[in-house]
Amino acid sequence: MVKNLFKDREIEISIKPIQDDTQYLFNSPANKKHLLEAIKEIKKNKNLIRLTANEFEELSEKLVSK
Fold this sequence. Notes:
Blueprint: H1 2-6, H2 21-26, H3 29-43, H4 53-65
């Protein structure tokens, strides 16, 4: 399929492992600490912002238009 897609052009195919996003974010000790604290807050149901679908849509539009 790849040959058909590129016909007579020369291509290079590279394969590499995908880094786990969580592992990447935990590479920084400060970032890891912040994320783990945020997870604790979520589990305690603290400091959460609750939005309806419409509120989320409105907020998203405001943030994108800035």
